[in-house]
Amino acid sequence: MKKLFLVAFVFCLGAATNANAAIKKHPRKRRHPAVAATHRAPVKPRPTAATATGRPAPIVRVATQSPRRAPAPAPAPPPPAPAQVVIQGGPWTEPTYADSTAGDMVDGEDMVIRRAAVEALGPFNGSVVAVDPNTGRILTMVNQRVALSTGFQPCSTIKVAVALAGLSEKAIRPANRFRLGALRMDLTYALAHSNNYYFATLGEKLGFEKVSHYAHLFGYGERAGLNVAGEKPGAFPSAAPRNGGVGMLCSFGEEISQTPLQLAALMSAIANGGTLYYLQYPHDQDEASNFVPLVKRRLEIGSLIPTIKAGMRGAVQFGTAHRAREDGPIAGKTGTCSENHAHLGWFGSFNDAGERKLVVVVLLTGGRPAIGPLAAGIAGDMYRRLGERNYFAASQPITAATLFSRQVCCAK
Question: Which architecture characterizes domain 111-410 according to CATH?
Answer without folding.
Answer: 3-Layer(aba) Sandwich (3.40)
